[in-house]
Design a protein that fits this description.
Chain B: Pfam families: Response_reg. Chain B: This is Two-component response regulator ARR22. Chain B: It comes from Morella rubra. Chain B: Keywords: Phosphoprotein. The complex is a heterodimer of chains A (150) and B (146). With 150 residues, chain A is mainly alpha-helical. Chain A has a single domain, classed as HPT domain (Four Helix Bundle (Hemerythrin (Met), subunit A), Up-down Bundle), CATH 1.20.120.160. Chain A is built from six helices and no strands. Chain A is elongated and about 55 Å long. Chain B is an alpha/beta fold. Chain B has one domain: 3-Layer(aba) Sandwich (Rossmann fold). Helices cover 38% and strands 16% of the residues of chain B. Chain B has five helices and five strands; from the N terminus they run E-H-E-H-E-H-E-H-E-H. Chain B is globular and about 30 Å long. The N terminus of chain B is likely disordered. Classes of the chains: A mainly alpha (150), B alpha/beta (146). At the A-B interface, helix 2, helix 3 and helix 4 of A face helix 1 of B.
Chain lengths: 150, 146
């Protein structure tokens, strides 16, 4: 595919991540930190996020299987996941984290289980979309400041 | 330009708010946060503003770093951490006589927790996520403090 066409596609794909509510302004903030000496900073952050948070997701999954539910532990695990998700602007994941925390506060086990399923869906969907975005950006030869919005 | 090299230029993005290169390395910062992603981002934010920095993963490590004689101009302190949380660490650092600027950076927005954190000895508090604008606001406070 011609380079200009690829660049346009990258820009459109990026914009759709915001328009569809997957990302918030914090992602823009991270892109501002990307430059020629740190050309892949955002992708590195996202990679670290998924590596690091996979254990939080597993902890929550295992904690939800134990009876009775330990809402204090669940709250603590989810607080960590929310914090990491907030740091790079994972908007839909953050929303599910907040809802889960409300269910924890209300000691609503069913709500926690239901919300967690939705959270896992959003978490996986975002990963897929960002991987596709970064791959397309690499194909278009766009890194560093070239990826910042105009 | 102040002695710490913090300019008053107005603009968006870290580059427009960059410190005077001639004085950047006079400011050192310690990031205290157990979250690897947050630590990475805070380090990059500080790097982009020319602030030399290190990261530790909990309050106990922050205490140990200071006990080995390494002072910092600025400490970015998370609240919820394993081993020793930010409130305990801030209290202990002040008890040790550490007069560095300590800015609490936490996603906890409850008034009671924030008040407890401030009372432990913070000079400033910023809600996560930390942005370049929030960090520059902290550095401007540091400038005034000095």
């Amino acid at each position: 595919m011609e380079r200009n066409q690829l660049s346009r596609q990258v820009a459109l794909q990026r914009q759709s991540l915001f328009d569809q509510g997957y990302l918030d302004d914090q992602f823009n903030q991270l892109e501002e930190l990307q430059d020629d000496s740190n050309p892949n900073f955002v992708e590195e952050v996202v990679t670290l996020y998924y590596q690091d948070t996979s254990r939080h997701v597993l902890e929550i999954e295992q904690a939800l299987e134990r009876k009775p539910l330990d809402f204090t532990k669940l709250d603590s695990y989810m607080y960590n996941l929310k914090g990491s998700s907030s740091s790079f602007g994972a908007k839909k994941v953050i929303a599910e984290c907040k809802l889960f925390l409300e269910h924890c506060k209300a000691r609503n086990g069913e709500g926690c289980v239901r919300t967690f399923q939705q959270l896992k869906t959003e978490y996986a969907t975002l990963k897929r979309k960002l991987e596709a975005y970064f791959q397309l950006a690499r194909q278009a030869g766009l890194t560093g400041t070239a990826l910042r919005p105009k | 330009m102040s002695q710490n090299g913090i300019g008053n230029s107005v603009g968006s993005g870290p580059s427009a708010l960059a410190l005077d290169p001639a004085t950047t390395y006079k400011i050192t910062a310690l990031v205290v946060d157990d979250d690897a992603v947050t630590g990475m981002i805070h380090r990059r934010l500080l790097d982009s503003l020319g602030v030399k920095n290190e990261v530790v993963r909990n309050g106990k490590e922050a205490i140990n770093v200071h006990r080995s004689g390494n002072p910092f101009d600025l400490i970015l302190m998370d609240m919820e951490m394993p081993v020793m949380n930010g409130i305990e660490a801030t209290r202990e650092l002040r008890r040790m006589g550490i007069r560095s600027m300590i800015a609490g950076v936490s996603s906890c927005s409850g008034d009671r927790e924030k008040q407890e954190f401030m009372e432990a000895g913070l000079d400033d508090f910023q809600e996560k996520p930390l942005t370049a604008t929030k960090l520059v606001s902290i550095l401007h406070k540091l400038n005034k403090k000095d």
